[in-house]
Specification:
Blueprint lengths: L2 E6 L5 H13 L3 E6 L8 E2 L5 E2 L15 E4 L3 H9 L1 H12 L3 E5 L3 H9 L8 E2 L6 H6 L3 E2 L6 E4 L2 E4 L5 H13 L1 H8 L8
Helix pairs in contact: 1-6, 2-4, 3-4, 6-7
């Protein structure tokens, strides 16, 4: 059973957090949510006011890298990830260990921040929410065409926003477990055929 860690901070986008969590559990992943610098220490207050209690309250409790690390968007949440040294270091460790990583919406900015601060910087072909596109392009990253809703480059999966969260999650399933598993998970959810 592959492991997944989904980070959450105050201001994270609810749909981009819950959808991958749900879909990956359906696919048989061992999923854990992890809080990043939560204001009250026990719950994330998401971008639309939904309160979510993470499985693990602090990123400092993570000892090993998961098979896939996932960061949702939501501008305030993404900003918290970019300011969190522990988050940036976890991204770098996952990259160094050859693990999969997924970033959706403004969450892609944390990937860019982690890469630019690494001892050996890297760049991938990515996408994000349009509101942070220029920020990513200015750092020299290759940006996918606006029509691409989910992008896979090496072991980096990126997507655009809340409306692409289901596609993003199913792409993660396909990348780690294959197309057959993706279809097995999508079918009872009444998803369009891929």
């Amino acid at each position: 059973m592959p492991s997944a860690v989904i980070l959450i901070a105050d201001g994270s986008e609810e749909v981009e957090f819950v959808t991958p969590y749900d879909v990956l559990v359906r696919a048989g992943f061992d999923v854990k949510s992890v809080g990043v610098d939560l204001n009250d220490g026990t719950q994330a207050i998401c971008s639309r006011g939904v309160r979510i209690t993470p499985d693990i309250l602090s990123i400092t409790e993570i000892r090993s890298t998961p098979d896939i690390l996932i960061l949702p968007g939501g501008a305030p949440g993404a900003a918290a990830f970019c300011k969190s040294g522990a988050t940036l270091e976890l991204i770098r460790r996952c990259r160094q260990e050859g693990k999969w990583m997924g970033f959706i919406c403004a969450g892609t900015t944390a990937l860019v921040e982690a890469a630019s601060g690494a001892a050996q910087p890297w760049k991938n072909r990515v996408t994000s929410h349009p509101s942070v596109k220029e920020q990513i392009v200015e750092k020299g990253w290759e940006y996918a065409s606006d029509g691409e809703r989910a992008v896979v480059d090496g072991k980096i999966i990126t997507s655009r926003g809340p409306g692409t969260a289901l596609l993003f999650a199913l792409t993660i399933v396909e990348c780690l477990l294959g197309k057959e598993k993706r279809e097995e998970v999508a079918r009872p959810m009444i998803c369009p055929k891929s």
